[in-house]
Amino acid sequence: MQSFIGIDLGSTTTKAVLMDDTGTVLGRGITNSRSNYDTACAVAKQEALINTRFTLFRQNLGHDSGDANKVEIFLEGLERNFRLVQFIEQLNDLHETCVRNTAGSRFEGKEKAVAEALGHLFDQLREDALSLFAPGAERKSDFFRDIAGSRYMHFGELVAKDTGLGFDLLLNVYDKSIIEVENRPPSGEMKNKFLEALNRVVKEGSLPFNAAEVEEPVKKALDVDIIETSVVGTGYGRVRLPFAKEFIRSEILCHGLGAHLMYPQTRTVLDIGGQDTKSIQVDPKGIVENFQMNDRCAAGCGRYLGYIADEMNMGLHELGPMAMKANKVARINSTCTVFAGAELRDRLAMGERREDILAGLHRAIILRAMSIISRSGGITDEFTFTGGVAKNEAAVRELRKLVYENYGEVTININPNSIYTGALGAAEFARRAVIN
Amino acid sequence: MSAKETVKEPSMLKQKEMIARNYDAITSAKETGRKVSSTFVPGNLNELVMSFGILNNLPEINAIQNGMRKASGPMIMDAEKRGHSEDVCTYVKADIGMMARGNIAPNGKPMPDPDVLLLSYTGCFTFMKWFELLREEYKCPTLMLHVPYEGDGHMTKNMVDYVVKQLKEVIIPGLEEVSGVKFDIDRLREYMRNSAKAEDDLVWVLETGKLKPSPIDAYFGGVYYIGPMFTAFRGTEDAVEYYKLLRKEIQYRVDNKLGPITPDGEMKDQKYRLVVEGPPNWTHFREFWKMFYDEGAVVVASTYTKVGGTYDQGFRHDETRPLESLAEYCLSCYTNRNLPDRIGMMERYINEYEADGLLTNSIKSCNSFSAGQLLMMREIERRTGKPGAFIETDLVDPRYFSAANVKNRLESYFQMIDQKRKGAKSAA
């Protein structure tokens, strides 16, 4: 099967979209960008390929079973177990790397003790992994670094206490190793992991099918040869992509085309990403007519929210929901990321509610975006909002208000897959380069 | 910088030598007993100043020199330490910082204090404040020529008379007093005759941007071409010779259908033809230029090359009516023109130079140049149907040049032009 892949190397996350020769999206993948774009690119692409397999499973199973709900239950179990297999593979890699990194003056005389402690610690992590990926379990993040990191800290402290070794030793070896593991390109072997996941899900015993009913369609889907016909890259890291220049597109063009593919009536696109905010005007074919971006600093970009989350000691995804609980919107004048911290503390000191301050900070970001929009030529119906911040309900609420105040009734499109807009545009560029 | 040798043409070497000689003359003024004036590029009265035997020192050019030598950053920080805000024009701050560091000229010798501050153009409000600061520092006479803004899009007889009256009553007597030399109108006429000759050649060079391929880059190369004309050399034999030499070089490129010379050699592939509005960034000049020629973008016309005279719009220094002509020169500089006039000029450039669009380099610390730029760009897009793009940098403050950001916008713009060209067929 021919496939066309778009990769969007963002400052925070790297996204990949895979489509077939008709332009139908089969798979999407996302990973954190790390400091190593090559690996991020490989991981995102692999994630899109994995996701594509699931689409193929769904297609194959759908034809036979005729019961979509049952298929979804099975696929959820299959994916959960697949992630478990992947997670354990990476845990084993981390374990080996940690042991290897137990060297140097700091560890002198304690190498054996640390290695033993690590053995103990990783046994617990592997055991714990089963519950992390058990049916119904919730994980705070899908990225290995986040999950493994927080569990390592948890068990590491316990192990340090039991063994009498300093926790700092375990922490030190983890810090050295995690970057190495994270930057190691993932092993390409997928088929065996899927088969192992299939075994595990069958063993769980809660399958809504007979094992034989699912094994054949899954194996058939695994036999499909997915050929990477063409790959186009975009985003800030695009120069790092190992492609020829003609396979690299500016993210402004990709976002414009991606938004057009999602909503063909789109004329104005707003993308708020990690480090930049773009307002793009497109014509009826998705061709960029005009654009404006934030200048010289990341004021009012996604990173601003990240900074606020750090300041408040909260998760990025908790900000929006908290801001939604505001009684009033605190007036925050600065979109400067650095000043925001000072404003925040000042407001807190004056006794304002965190919810209200957060609502104000979200409004400040959107005000900044509105200014960039107006510089690009304003909003023409329909208006499509993309990028990581489009997932933040509080930001969206402020945006709706301000769009209405400034431009009246406008159709505002926000796609659940909006984070993939740039990668989608890139994949379509890859497809057009071959198909046309 | 790469170890590769930068390509330089004979005219560039000649200009380099002229600049070096001028700095030597300025820094040895004490020994030679010559007087030094400080003045600005737009509306500069070089012929008049020279007719009194006074040397011309241009603080803007010093700031540019420092910017290109990567020396302006610490100077600006010094000025900020002395209380100048972050938003102040960075030419001013580079100059203040340069003074604070001993006012060392590029030849390594200290600049003498000026004998007179000649403010011959007031279209930039900051110039006035700048000279106030310098006057405080040097305690020397300041001569101010008030040049009315062409707010209605044209100069009137009243405006010309007003400037001439000031020349007669303030500037000429003032320069006589400073120099101890009596005004000699014939000497002025002679310099102006030289100016007009060189101006003809400069216009010829700038207009070769209309050819395909363009033998010049009218922005990055253009700032070298206007160098002698806009600074201390207009009216000299040296400048006449420089432009002859330059014209010959360009003629050779025209005859052989060659592209402009960049620091990496001849630019071969010209995929995009641009008109550029706004001054360049000086601290990353090479890096900035490379972003264009690496992508096959050549600038065929620019407005920055008109700040020291709109010669391509027909103005020439006229020895037969010297003072009126100097007045008209000051009045007609690009920065003294109103927005509709600037829009008209750029629209003509897009059409006559068959450009793909207008790129604006908006300068963070220059309100005088930047005000209204987005508005102008929109109007030009509307009139020509050609796409515009907007990038933001600064003159000589290295902190305001974000290479990744600028490159991203430029590449997007070039790809946008590509897309537009293919537009009718498909969006690929």
Structural features:
heterodimer, A: 436 residues, alpha/beta, Nucleotidyltransferase, domain 5, five-stranded mixed sheet, 14 helices, 9 strands, 56% helix, B: 428 residues, Rossmann fold, four-stranded parallel sheet, 10% strand
Write up this protein.
Chain A has 14 helices and nine strands. With 436 residues, chain A is an alpha/beta fold. Chain A has three domains: 1-66 and 221-260 and 426-436, ATPase, nucleotide binding domain (Nucleotidyltransferase, domain 5, 2-Layer Sandwich); 68-207, no CATH class; 264-414, Nucleotidyltransferase, domain 5 (2-Layer Sandwich). Chain A has a five-stranded mixed beta sheet. Chain A has a four-stranded mixed beta sheet with strand order 3-2-1-4. Chain A is globular, with a radius of gyration of 24 Å. Chain B has a domain at 10-182: Rossmann fold (3-Layer(aba) Sandwich), CATH 3.40.50.11890. Chain B contains 18 helices and ten strands. Chain B has a four-stranded parallel beta sheet, with helices on both faces. Chain B has a four-stranded parallel beta sheet with strand order 8-7-9-10, with helices on both faces. In chain B, strands 5-6 form a two-stranded antiparallel sheet. In chain B, helix 4 (59-68) packs across helix 6 (90-100), helix 9 (185-207) packs parallel to helix 12 (237-255) and helix 15 (339-352) crosses helix 17 (373-384). Chain B is globular. The two termini of chain B are 36 Å apart. The model of chain B has no long low-confidence stretch (mean pLDDT 93). At the A-B interface, helix 8, strand 7 and helix 14 of A face helix 17, strand 10 and helix 18 of B.
